[in-house]
Each structure stands twice: as structure tokens, then as C-alpha cells.
Design brief:
Chain lengths: ~450, ~475
């Protein structure tokens, strides 16, 4: 597995801050910034826009001017420019306040991060960001800026938006760094300019731009970590190079994939959850833990010969209730959390299992909710056994005895559902996926 | 015999409200009432020249016909003696009904509490009006019920049932009905009434409008407003708008869909809701004041799902309140020395007629002295679904939620709850917070949203119940 597949949800952020708010001076003051965005290369350039969370429109400077005319700026104004084609690019120009002081920011986020690693393109793309920063700085005096892998930024000790003090303390060194005049003064211009860096450049407005590496692509590599550590230690002499490097290497470890060797019957659920947790959520630890996990064998079945015959008055009506009322109820309850339920494909089962497990449905049910959910979940599972494996319902008055006959086994989907909803971990231990896959395997074996 | 005639109403209501297990219903069946088409209003339909009820069913019909009831109440408020006499008889009937219900619900006829809890939600079917007259009658009834219940040391479960009527029926403020009555009552009753009004009714786990939730009396108004908002916004399946086609979907209390019990509160509340909406669409019931478009009723499935989700959102809000009152304020409001956190607080905004209800409001009591500027924080709770959403969509949602929270709970507000230290004061909200349900949000999205929140003037938190 490549690092990009491992950190699937990773993206790149470039955030620039200023204590001047051009929004206050009308639309004209924003035009040089818009020109900088428009000058991005075609592969990055946004073509849609939203003004203050409003409807998404095709981008044009003229139309945006119109939006501003209709809704004059208040201290909080937001222009979001987005791309309709991959990669997902969001450029935001925002006017806001911090501690009753005016602020503005210009930021770019690009997803997926792998876009920046593309062979042969990485350097050119990195240069675009540097040009962008120069263009912005020539119209907006910057007080602070950072460009880096967003995942790594979140794992760092930098508190990001929680600290917008002036001068902002130096927490870490990233790929792209912009220090405004107050920071430059606090560190000392000469000291800052002599930081070991790939690029060190004075910007208009008194800020200094510097890069640790030619591109943001290899931020977690040994070379990049060494560059980051050296720069940081230079700026903060109280830190030791060894311990700084050690900390950065530990962070890099989170980005290095380990193989997922999950039990095949629950592998889909665990893969989904591992991706959901992501690198930020401690994916490595999760995978290590669940590589060792084996679910208990499925016990909710009887040999076909021992399955109780239907004891309901109207078998067809009972089946209709299971399939229409109960199972539709499950879809109604969860389709917003588990959109896959609407497609009715096999893929829905592990998504549903994961959601029930992750959201703690086994733990937080009231008695009444559980009594609603058990029939719904059981019927939903039963329907898969019927529709995909060609099973046959054997309805019973007592739901836990109702079975679906597939080959020489009678599966008890409602009993399974009850087991799945008993506590925090039970949706995984008693997953629908596992029962379905076991039944499918045996049905195939039986058919041969 | 005017007294006997208003008793018809009493018999009807008490038998319906107590449910089949407690008494045999021999009164006018609801289905028959539902076929009723109200004629043009005239006092002679219901009473003689002096306002005395005439005719077997006049009280029942008058209470059922919302527009007529409201007309009589309005006239009585305007000083019309005939209307006053007529409405007075209705009040007496309601008062007697309330007392009788309190006795029966705990009496020999009804040993099996709470299985035999008063089915207040059915009141809405017999007395659909939510206008001022309808509210007044409900208040009279609920007050006499709780007074009688208190005197008989009725369990809290039965008392709690009083609340049931409020949600489906109307907003009712406990103890609002005339101080004059309390004066007339015995000393014991007076004490009981005072006790009943002080503090929230201790609600048990009860099915309020088919919702399973613990609610204090003063929260019901808010909950009702919210539910109405959610219903108006719901995009789920509805019955056809065209009246003839709509009439074919008319639900009956006695015929729930398969798998639902006749007495299930949610079903009863659905039937009441459906009929209310039908009348609003046919014009036989005054429209809600806001000038909102009245949509045709939701199907039973949509309605039931709406209630389930609504219940989840109530529970979420409850959990956030508890967290803030217990440990959360130290984390989310670290600068507050003596935080007082209350929920569902009514706020009046500058230039807005109707109050808004804020999920939670926190005030630092250490900042309340003279010459100090009170530190006031407001919280908006949202359960958003970001599953399958792009980052752009998620960020736009955040921006919209933040703007809404700022517009409703930011700036200068006036606190509308008596007894609150800020009651009646105009204060500037120091900070507005937005609380998302973090259950199914991945960390990366959480971080991305946290990054944006200050740009939209809110402090963002994630809470996992």
C-alpha cells in the first residue's frame, strides 16, 4: 500500500493571514486577490463560487461584484471559490474578526494530497504556490502563513487557529512558512534570514517567506524531517536536534502503511473503519489491534431439518411485514447516516455494520428503541439471504425463531440482530456481514 | 338542563381520554365528528338567547368546530354577555372533566397505572382548536386536573400525563388560569396549586405525542415550535395536496397500519396531526400565524420517521445541556467562574416580534454585579449528516449554521424567562457556540471545520453522546 492510499483523506493546506481587511474597502480592493486566484494554472483554477454560504454559481468576477453590491460586507464575509473538476480545490477569501480586531485570510486546500506528489509535476506545482504567495503578499501585508500536509499539520504541536496572537510564537517548521513583521522582529531579522532553508525570500509588506524543501510532497521523508528539525532548532535554540528529529520521525511513522490482515468475514467493516479513523485517528494502532481480532463463529443457525415450521396464520403476510415494514424502517432510520442503504447492493451490509458499531448503537439504545431496531435489522439481513442467496423465509410468531432457509441450514436473522445490539462491541462481534458471508460460503459449498 | 348538556362534553372527553380499558365509550364517536362539516356560525346553533347550551351535542360540536369556538371566545373577551355565558359553561365542563379524570385515573376503575394513564393527546382530536379559546380551555382543564391530582397524592406518572396534552394540543403555561380560582379554593387546594406551579412538573418517561422524552413543563413550548419547524422543512413523502385525493388517505384512530397498536400514542398523535392539517388546507381551521405555506400532511411512515429523528435531536440537546451543567463548562467555558447553564431559553431579539429559543445559554454569575458587564454565551446544537459530503459541502453547511446561530443567538438579546438572573435585561452575547454531534464525523473533517469556525464568528465543539 502506498502512503497516499494509507492517508486517503489527506490534503494540502496553504493558509495566509493578514490584519488588514480589504473587504472593508469595497470590491475593488479584492480584485488583485481575485486576479491572483485567476492566475493559478488550469489544473488548480476554481470555476465555481459561493458568496457567504449562498448558492453555488459559475465563477465570474462580474457576477461576484454583483453579489457584493446586493449584500454589502459586514465584518464577516466569505468568498469560496471551488473547482468542479478533480482535484478538489477550495480557495477562500475571508474577512473576519479576532479579539475585535479586523482579520482577513486567503487559503487554498487541495485534495487529494497525492496530486502534489505526481511524478514530474511536483516541482512545478510547488512553484505555483510560491508564486501565489508572492502575488497575494504584494497586495495584502501578511502577518503569518503556512503551507503543509493538513494531516501532518494537525498531528503537530502547532495549535493553528487557537493561537493567532501577534507576534505568533514559533511552534514548528513546515514546508512553506510566512512570518509577518512582528514575528520577524521577535526572532530577529538576521537570525531568521540565516535559517537553513531551501528558499528564503523577503516579501512586500515586511514579511519573510521561507521553504524547508523544494516541494511539500515529501514532508514525511527523512530528508524533509531533517530540514524541518534543523530549521526549528535554529529558530528555537532551546530545542535539541535529536529530540526534535525523534518526535518528527514518530509522526512520520503514522504515515507509513502497515498491511491490513483482517479476518475475511469482517475485513470490509474493519477496512471502512480504519479509513474512517484515518491517520489522524491513529490508523496504525487500529490496524495493529484488529489484525489480531477474530469474531466468534456464527451461532445463529439450525440444521434445516430442525428448523421450526411456520406457526403464523398467514405466512405471506408475515413475510410482507418483514420485508416491507421492518426492513424499510431500517432504511428510513439510517439512510442519512449510511447512504449505501439506498442502493440495496451488497456493499450496504459492511457500511451498516460499521455505522452501528462506530456510533455505539449497541450501547445507547433504550428498551423501546431496541425493540424497534431488532426487527428492522433482522428483516434487513434476512432479505439479503432471500434475495441474494435464494433463501426462503420461515416466519414464526416469535421473531427470534423466524429463519431463512438456505441449502441445508436455517439462519436466524432476528436472533442475530438481537445479539448485534446488546453492547458497544456487539455490532462487530455479531455483524450482519459475517453471517451473510458465512451463509454465502456454505451455500456455494452445498451447491457443488 | 344546561348542566346536563355540558356534561355530555365531560362524558365524551373523560371516556375518550381515559381510554377503552377504563370506561365504555358511549359518546359521539370521533369518526362521526370527523365527517362534520361546520355550518356558518350562529349562536342559535348552540345556545338560547341567554347563552345557555341547548341540544344534546351542542357543547361537543362547538368545541370540535375550531373556528366557532374561537369566535365565541373572542366575543366573550369583547364583553358579549351571551358569549361569556356560553364559554363559561364550557370552562365548567373542562374543569369538571379535569377533576374527574384525576379521580378516575387513580381510582378503582383504573388500578393499573401507568397503563391507564390519561390519554391527553386525544383531547386534540375532540378539541382541535389551538387558538386562544382552545388554549384557555386546555389550561382550565389541566389546572383542575393537577390540583385534584395533587390533593389525592396522585403519582408523578399520572401528573406527568398532563404534559402530554400540551405537546400535541397546545402550549400551556401551568398555573396561568386565574388567581381568582385559587382564591376561592380551600387553603389546602391553594397550597397544592402553589406547589403545582412552582418548579417543573416531574415528568416520568412518557410518550409525549409519541415521543419518548423527559420534558419539563416550560420546555414544551419550545419543543412544539421546533417540531412544527421540522415538519415544515421535512422533504419526506406527503399525501396529495388536492383535497379530494387527500380525503381518501384520511386515517382513523381505530385503524392503525399493521404492526401498530390502536392505542399507540404516536398513531393517535398522527391522526390528530392529519386532521389538523386537513382542516387547515380546507380552510375550516385558521392557518398558523406565520404566513408559512401549509403543506399536505406527511404519510404515516414519514411522520413516524420525523418523530424518531426529532426525538434523537431532543436527546442530543439534553445530553449537551447535562454535559455543560456538569463538567463541560470547565472545558468549553474555561473563563467562567460561576457558570449558570439553562436550556431552551426564550430570547427576544431586537426588531423581531416572536422570541427565539436558544438550546443553551450560559451566564457567568460572577459577572452579574453592578457596573459589571455580564459574560453571556449562547449555544446552538445541530446534528448534521456529513456522510458522503464533500469538504466544500461540509464547510458550506458550517457557514450556514454559524450564520444562523449568529443571527438568532448573537448580538443583543433580552432574556424572557422569569426567575433567570438576566430576566428582562438586555445583554450583549459575548460569544456564540455551535455544537455538532461528533458521532459519525471523522477527525480530519472535524479539524477542517474547527479551522474554519473562527472565520464565521462561532466557537465550534463536537459532542458525542
Amino acid at each position: 500500500m502506498s502512503p497516499d492510499e494509507w492517508d486517503k483523506s489527506g490534503d494540502f493546506h496553504l493558509d495566509l493571514f493578514s490584519s488588514i481587511r480589504p473587504f472593508d474597502e469595497g470590491f475593488e480592493a479584492l480584485e488583485p486577490l481575485l486576479a491572483a486566484v485567476e492566475a493559478l494554472s488550469a489544473e488548480l483554477r476554481p470555476d465555481r463560487m459561493r458568496h457567504n454560504g449562498g448558492r453555488k454559481l459559475k465563477y465570474s468576477r462580474q457576477k461576484l461584484r454583483e453579489c457584493f453590491r446586493v449584500a454589502p460586507s459586514d465584518p464577516y464575509t466569505n468568498i469560496m471559490l471551488v473547482r468542479s473538476q478533480p482535484p478538489e480545490v477550495i480557495v477562500t477569501l475571508s474577512g473576519w474578526e479576532h479579539d475585535s480586531r479586523p482579520m482577513s485570510s486567503v487559503d487554498i486546500s487541495i485534495s487529494p494530497f497525492s496530486f502534489l506528489r505526481e511524478q514530474g509535476q511536483a516541482k512545478r506545482r510547488a512553484e505555483q504556490f510560491v508564486s501565489f504567495v508572492r502575488a497575494v503578499a504584494s497586495h495584502l501585508p501578511l502577518s503569518y502563513g503556512v503551507g503543509h500536509s493538513f494531516t501532518d499539520l494537525c498531528l503537530s504541536t502547532d495549535p493553528r487557529m487557537k493561537d493567532l496572537s501577534t507576534p505568533r510564537p514559533i511552534y514548528e517548521a513546515f514546508w512553506l512558512n510566512v512570518y509577518g513583521p512582528a514575528m520577524v522582529q521577535a526572532v530577529g531579522r538576521e537570525r531568521l534570514l540565516s535559517t537553513p532553508a531551501f528558499l528564503m525570500e523577503e516579501l512586500p509588506g515586511g514579511a519573510i517567506l521561507w521553504l524547508t524543501r523544494p516541494t511539500p510532497a515529501d514532508f514525511e521523508s527523512e530528508e524533509a524531517r531533517l530540514a524541518q528539525a534543523r530549521a526549528l532548532v535554529h529558530l528555537r535554540p532551546e530545542l535539541s536536534l535529536d529530540s526534535t528529529l525523534e518526535r518528527l520521525r514518530l509522526r512520520s511513522l503514522e504515515f507509513s502503511p502497515i498491511s491490513m490482515e483482517f479476518d475475511p468475514d469482517v475485513a470490509d467493516i474493519l477496512r471502512l473503519e480504519a479509513d474512517f479513523q484515518g491517520v489522524l485517528g491513529g490508523k496504525r494502532k487500529f490496524v495493529e489491534r484488529f489484525n489480531r481480532y477474530r469474531p466468534p463463529a456464527v451461532s445463529e443457525w439450525l440444521p434445516a431439518s430442525q428448523a421450526p415450521a411456520p406457526d403464523v396464520e398467514d405466512v405471506q403476510a408475515a413475510i410482507k411485514t418483514y420485508e416491507e415494514l421492518y426492513s424499510e424502517q431500517l432504511i428510513a432510520l439510517f439512510h442519512k447516516d449510511v447512504p449505501q442503504l439506498m442502493q440495496g447492493t451488497l456493499e450496504a451490509l459492511p457500511h451498516l455494520d460499521r455505522y452501528l458499531w462506530h456510533a455505539g448503537w449497541g450501547r445507547r439504545l433504550t428498551h423501546e428503541q431496541r425493540e424497534t431496531l431488532v426487527p428492522a435489522l433482522g428483516a434487513f439481513l434476512g432479505r439479503y439471504l432471500v434475495e441474494v442467496l435464494g433463501g426462503r423465509w420461515l416466519p414464526r410468531k416469535k421473531l427470534e425463531e423466524a429463519a431463512v432457509l438456505v441449502g441445508d441450514r436455517a439462519w436466524l436473522p432476528f436472533l442475530r440482530a438481537r445479539h448485534a445490539l446488546q453492547n458497544q462491541e456487539s455490532p462487530l462481534d455479531f455483524s450482519c456481514s459475517q453471517l451473510f458471508l458465512t451463509a454465502q460460503r456454505l451455500a456455494r459449498a452445498h451447491a457443488h | 338542563m344546561p348542566r346536563a348538556l355540558s356534561l355530555a362534553l365531560l362524558v365524551l372527553l373523560s371516556s375518550a381520554l381515559l381510554g377503552g380499558t377504563c370506561s365504555e365509550s358511549e359518546a359521539v364517536p370521533l369518526e362521526e365528528l370527523q365527517r362534520d362539516v361546520a355550518p356558518a356560525f350562529a349562536y342559535s346553533l348552540y345556545c338560547d338567547e341567554g347563552g345557555t347550551l341547548v341540544g344534546e351535542r351542542s357543547a361537543v360540536l362547538l368545541v370540535y368546530r375550531a373556528a366557532h369556538l374561537e369566535r365565541v371566545y373572542a366575543d366573550s373577551r369583547a364583553g358579549n354577555p351571551r358569549a361569556q355565558a356560553l364559554f363559561g359553561q364550557l370552562e365548567n365542563a373542562m374543569r369538571a372533566t379535569g377533576t374527574q379524570l384525576a379521580r378516575q385515573s387513580e381510582g378503582i376503575a383504573c388500578h393499573s397505572l401507568p397503563a391507564c394513564v390519561v390519554q391527553w393527546h386525544k383531547l386534540d382530536e375532540f378539541m382541535p382548536s389551538r387558538g386562544e379559546g382552545g388554549v384557555r380551555l386546555r389550561q382550565v382543564m389541566a389546572d383542575s386536573f393537577s390540583r385534584a391530582a395533587k390533593l389525592q397524592h396522585v403519582s408523578n406518572t399520572a401528573m406527568a400525563a398532563v404534559l402530554d396534552v400540551l405537546l400535541v394540543g397546545t402550549v400551556l403555561q401551568r398555573g396561568m388560569v386565574g388567581a381568582a380560582e385559587t382564591k376561592a379554593a380551600s387553603a389546602e387546594a391553594k397550597a397544592a396549586a402553589v406547589e403545582a406551579t412552582a418548579g417543573p412538573v416531574e415528568a416520568g418517561r412518557l410518550a409525549v405525542a409519541g415521543l419518548e422524552a423527559r420534558l419539563a413543563a416550560e420546555e414544551l413550548a419550545v419543543v412544539e415550535v421546533r417540531l412544527a419547524e421540522e415538519e415544515a422543512l421535512a422533504t419526506a413523502a406527503r399525501h396529495p395536496r388536492q383535497l379530494e385525493a387527500l380525503a381518501r388517505h384520511r386515517p382513523a384512530s381505530s385503524q392503525p397500519p399493521s404492526g401498530v397498536e390502536t392505542e399507540h400514542p404516536r398513531w393517535t398523535s398522527y391522526v390528530a396531526y392529519w386532521h389538523r392539517r386537513y382542516e387547515e388546507l380546507t380552510g375550516t381551521r385558521p392557518l398558523p400565524p406565520k404566513g408559512v405555506e401549509v403543506k399536505p400532511p406527511l404519510t404515516w411512515e414519514s411522520y413516524s420517521t420525523l418523530l424518531s429523528r426529532f426525538q434523537r435531536s431532543l436527546e442530543f440537546q439534553r445530553a449537551v445541556t447535562r454535559w455543560l451543567q456538569q463538567h463541560g463548562s470547565r472545558k468549553w467555558l474555561p473563563e467562567m467562574k460561576q457558570p449558570l447553564v439553562t436550556d431552551n431559553m426564550g430570547l427576544k431579539l431586537k426588531g423581531r416580534a416572536t422570541p427565539v429559543y436558544v438550546d443553551q445559554i450560559a451566564v457567568d454569575q460572577a459577572t452579574l454585579g453592578p457596573g459589571l458587564r455580564p459574560s453571556v454565551h449562547t449555544f446552538s446544537n445541530k446534528q448534521r449528516n456529513f456522510a458522503g459530503k464533500t469538504l466544500e459541502e461540509a464547510r458550506t453547511q458550517l457557514e450556514l449554521d454559524a450564520r444562523e446561530a449568529q443571527a438568532k443567538y448573537g448580538g443583543e438579546v433580552e432574556v424572557r424567562r422569569p426567575g433567570h438572573p438576566l430576566f428582562g435585561k438586555k445583554v450583549r452575547v459575548s460569544r456564540t457556540h455551535l455544537v455538532y454531534d461528533g458521532t459519525n464525523l471523522d477527525l480530519k473533517l472535524k479539524e477542517a471545520l474547527l479551522q474554519r469556525a473562527p472565520l464565521h464568528n462561532v466557537e465550534l465543539h463536537f459532542y458525542v453522546p
